[in-house]
Amino acid sequence: MNSRIMLALVAMLAPAALSAQSNADLQKQIEQLKVQLKAVEEKAAAAQEIDTRLVKVETKVAGDNIQWGGDLRTRFESSKWTFKPYQQFMGFAQSAGAPAGSLPPGYPYPFMALTQQVPGQDYTNAVQWSTRLRLKMGITINEHAKIMGRLTMYKVHGGADVPVFNGSPNTVSNSFNDAKVPGTDVLRVERASLVYDFPVGILSIGRQNTSDGPPFEVREGGERQATPQALAVNALVDGIGFKFQLDKLGLPEGTLLGICYGVGYESGFGGGGNVKANAAPVGFNFTNVNWTAQGPNAAAATMQVNNIGPLKDSTVLGVMYDMPLLFQLGESVQSANFYLGFNRFGNMTDIPYGSTNNFPVPAMPGMGGMPSTQYVTATNNLGDMDQWTATWKHKIGDTFTYFASYGHIKSNPNGKMSQYGAYWTFPANMGGTQQLAGFGGLLGDATHSQTASAYYVGMRWDPIQTLGFGVEFNHGSPRWFTYSPATGEATEKLGTRGDVWEGYIHWQFAKNAAFRLGYLDYKYTHAFSGWHISPGPAMPGQSWEDAYDLSKNPMLQYGFPAAVKTTYASIEVKF
Question: Which residue has the higher pLDDT, 62 or 546?
């Protein structure tokens, strides 16, 4: 019986004992898990710390691998523009009903030109401020490859984001000039290219260093900034180039022979439209403009929309030769550079794709101008143009540098003209709608080859290391054109048809900081400076040179200045 009682007690106490043992084991396992979890957390924290350190190291390495630099310029300008008398072209009206005496006897045409005599006048902009920021960057990929870039912000204080077209190419914002002509406060890509060093030469692909070329570095007091000569190309160009190093053939060290190819207008997707053929407003049709008691009813003019294309891509193919020289005359060390270049501009269009307003017909009372803002586009391929340039730069010792550049162009027109202009609708048997006036063809002649030339000379004297004095002069013939829509000035100095004098003082008053004071004096002889196109003479038998001589009261759609005088002062900081 006692045994039975003992067995009963054991049976009753066994679950409690087992429960106590299970709780102890569970608590032990929990404590072990806590230890393991703490170890895992410590390992994770260590891994995170290592990862954070690696990120910092990689970021530092990447940052160290990108070399940054640049400059900031704040500039004050005071300008005076002088316009000589000219006839403002206003469009056309029906000849029937014209005021008595306004047409010669027996006048045979159903239309007549409307013009308004504009007297000589001066415009003054006494105060204008601008700021330009340029960020340069270089990234080393490996021992042979690197990426070179420059971002630019350039704007007039309080200036408009979209320019008002005034007849100058600089007042059409496009990808060739948007980083160099004052615009918005946006950083724009001026240069972005992959540079690869081969044993025989250097390859460059992307947005090329084609602005501020030699001899602009003399005025700036720095190193050469671009491949092409300033008198040849001073624009933002996308393409590919290769420079052969000729010093391995026994020529002076640094001698190069370069070949480049770029696209000026992409006629397909991404260019002036989404397809090769489209339509665009190109001006006004004046057929319905008749005479009233108050004069011609300009409001009857209608917008002219034309079919555009198919167009071809416009391209540039260039060859350049650079030869540096180092020699001694007496006790003075002499350094010189000789540059020679040739460019073939193929399938040139009348205008690149860009934005502006007041184009292609100025705003007029009762009629208005074109919609604002407009996106203008090329309307025709006009032909080819050949360009030759040569520059000699000579530095005598450490104090005196002079240079001389020469340029020559020859047009090869294909018979076509820009479609921008004024239109009239004739009866179907007389050809229907036709262009009566417009922007014209290459160098003002759509059917015959024309030539023009220019030269550019200057000197700089640095009596001490921190002070420089410079004088420059350039001259362009009546039809002169150079591909320089991005000179960084309100007017295109090297595209001038006429004469330009510039004098300046450059004083480095502190490390990487300088003050510049200068004066520019433009004297234009003919209209359409900076343009590769222009209309032909309006009168039969008249030469182009007489028709658009600014001293002979020419008929113009936009007024072109006869003189511009600008005084400027700037603070320039490099970093």
Answer: 546
